[in-house]
């Protein structure tokens, strides 16, 4: 288990990454397509779909209790999608930094949660 201050920083970073992922999806959506309707549908629809799925599956108090691999798969899809969106709007370096930080943050959070679960069982 990681020290409490690092745990709190990592959890705060996780929340920030989630918000940034939704913002990246919106940014891409509003930049994509040939007309206003497409901009609106993608700019609102892409992050809305991600937010709903995240709330149902990946949020700390998710409606559906999905096994960890399913949660990690959804997180990977949202974060990878956000990185691809950042690249698509012309910011490849930002996309790589976002993807790397999201990967490390998720890995640390997963290891920390597993350690906490094992500690509670003991």
TrEMBL record:
Pfam families for this protein: DUF2568 (PF10823)
InterPro entries in UniProt: DUF2568
UniProt KW keywords: Membrane, Transmembrane, Transmembrane helix
Keyword match Transmembrane: yes
Signal peptide: none
Tagged with keyword Transit peptide: no
Transmembrane segments: 12-30, 36-59, 71-89, 95-111
The protein, known as: YrdB family protein
């Amino acid at each position: 288990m990681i020290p409490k201050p690092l745990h709190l920083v990592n959890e705060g970073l996780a929340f920030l990454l989630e918000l940034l992922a939704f913002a990246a999806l919106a940014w891409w959506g509003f930049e994509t397509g040939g007309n206003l309707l497409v901009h609106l549908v993608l700019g609102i629809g892409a992050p809305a779909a991600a937010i709903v799925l995240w709330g149902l599956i990946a949020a700390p108090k998710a409606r559906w209790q999905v096994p960890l691999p399913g949660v990690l798969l959804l997180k990977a899809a949202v974060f990878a999608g956000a990185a691809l969106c950042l690249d698509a709007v012309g910011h490849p370096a930002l996309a790589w930094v976002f993807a790397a930080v999201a990967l490390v943050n998720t890995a640390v959070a997963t290891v920390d949660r597993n350690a906490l679960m094992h500690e509670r069982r003991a």
